Fold these 2 entries.
Entry 1:
Amino acid sequence: MRIVVLDGYAANPGDISWEGMQALGELTVYDRTAPAQLLERAQDADILLTNKVIINEAAMAQLPRLRYIGVLATGYNVVDVAAARQRGIVVTNIPAYSTDSVAQLTFAHILNITHSVDHYARQNRKGAWTASADFVYWDTPLIELSGKTMGIVGLGNIGMKVATIAHCFGMRVCAFTSKDAARLPEFIGKADLPELLSTSDVLSLHCPLTPQTQHLINVDSLAQMKPTAILVNTGRGPLVDEQAVADALKAKRLRAYCADVLSVEPAQADNPLLQCENAYLTPHIAWATYEARQRLMQIAIDNVKAFINGKPINVVNG
C-alpha cells in the first residue's frame, strides 16, 4: 500500500513522528506540493493525504490506483467529494481534533480586546507605567465580560465549547443555530440572526462556509450590530465581507474585528484589514497547538488503518 502525504509540513513541521503512518505502508511525505507537481507525486499512490492541495475530478481521472483521500483537517472542500464517490474513492476528514485549541484562541482574542494585555505589556516596556503619577496606568477602555451578551453563529463542537466558556465568564449566551431550542443547554438561548446581530456585545462565528453563509457578515449585517461590539472569526475567512468590516472599523461602527482566518491565505498585501488599527489578525494558528496536531496525526493514522481493514471511519462522502 503506497501512501503519499502531499503537504505535511503545516501539520507536522518536524516535532511529531510519522512512525505510526509508516507502519501502514510505503510512506512518502512532501512538505508542500504545487498544483503542477500533484500528478507526478500521486501517480502510484493508493492513499493520498492532503491538507490544502486541491484534488479535483480531473486529477482523480488521471490517478487510476487511487482508492482513498484523507484530508488532514476538518474542512474537506479541497476534495471533489462527489467525483470521489462516483469513482469509489473513500474520502475522510479529521473531526473535532482542535476544538479546545480554537476555543482557547477565540477567548485569547476577546481578552486581548477587553483588557488590552499586549498593548499594556508594550507600553510598560516604553516606560509608561514607570512615568505614571499614580500607582495605576491605563489609556484604553477596560471591559468586564460578565453580564455582556455573547452571540454565537453555529453550535458545532467549537461553538458549543465557546458557549460553555462564555457562560463561565458570566456572559449571557445566545446562538443562531439549526439545533432545536429544547435540546440546548439551559444557559444558551436560541435567537434568529437579526436578534443576535443587534444584541451581541461579542459575536463569534463558528459556522461552516456554504453558499448561504458566505459574506454572512456584510454591510447590512454590520449596520445591525452595536458600534461597541467585538466581532470574532475563527471559522472561515469568507464568512465576512472583509472590505465591509474594514470600512466599519474605520468609521467606528465596530469596536474590533478579531480573526484567525482570511478570505485569501496567506494574507495578501492589499487586504484592507491589514491597515485597520482595530483589526487583530492571527495567521491561522488556532488549530496548530502541539496537542491538537498530535490528535490530528493519531486520527489520521486511525482513519488510514480503518480503511485498510475494510471498515473506514470519518467518511465524508459515504
Entry 2:
Amino acid sequence: MKLTTLKIDGAEKAAIAAPRGFVLVDRINRELGARWRTDPFDLIESGQLNELAAWHRAGGAETLAAMDAVPFDRAAYAPLYRRPRKIWGIGFNYAANEEELRQTDPDAEPVGFLKPDTALIGPGDPIRLPAQSERTVAEAELAIVIGRPCKNVPEEEAERYVAGFAAVFDMSADDIHRRNPRFLTRAKSFDTFFSFGSELVTPDEYPDVLDIEVRAALNGETMHRNVVRNMRFRPWQTVAFHSNVMTLLPGDVIMTGTPGALVIRAGDTVECSIDGLTPLANPIVREL
C-alpha cells in the first residue's frame, strides 16, 4: 500500500494510491462507514496503518479502484507528517560495489546523528541555503518509518516494527562541518534541511528490499545511484541497532545514508528517486 498526504482546501489529508489517483481516507470512511484516522501520523501512532494495509491486501485495493480519486497529475503533496519525534541519520553507509562491501570491518558500527523537526519541509518546498554557509550539500536517501514502539529488537524481528519507507533529502552545511567534525549537529540543523515525502510505501510492496535503488539527480541529471544491497548497515539491521540505543516510537524516521552528495546552489533543483515511490523534488534558493 502507498500512503501520502495531500493539500486539500488548506488542510493536509491522508490518501491511498489507487489506479486512477489518490483516494482520500476520509472518502473511504464515508463510503464504507469506516473510522480510519485521516492524518498519516495518527494512522501510524494508533496502529491503524497496519489494519488499513491488511484491508488493502485483502481486497481493499479493488474497492479503491471504483472510488473517486485525485488524479496523480493534480496531486498537491504535503510532507507525510510534520512532527516526527526523532529524525535519525546514518553516514557513510553505502559501499560502491559488492567487493568494497566485503571489505567492511565486521566490527564497524553506524555513524549517526539527529536532526530537529524544525528542519522539515515537503515536496516542492524550497531548500534555503544559509547565509553562513558557502558549500551546502543535499543527500537523497531512503528513510525507514517506524510503525510500533520497539526496544532491544533483534534483527530478524525488526521488519515487524517498520511502517514503511519514504524518500527524503538530508541537507548539510558541508563547509561548517569540515571546519570541525564537532559541528555536525549545527551543520545538519538549519531550517529546510530535511525534505520528507512524497509517499510512504509499506514493506510488503517490495519483493526484496535489498533490490531497491536510490537515485540522486541535480537539475534533471542523475548524478548518483546505488542499491540497498550495498548498504553496510541494511534496514532491518539499522532498526535493531538503534532500538538497542533508544526506544523507537511510531513515526520516528531513520535516514539510511546516501549514494552520493550533491553540491547545491541557488537556482538548482534536486530530485530523489526511489523504486516504488514518486520522486521527491525541491528547488534551491538563497536565504534572504
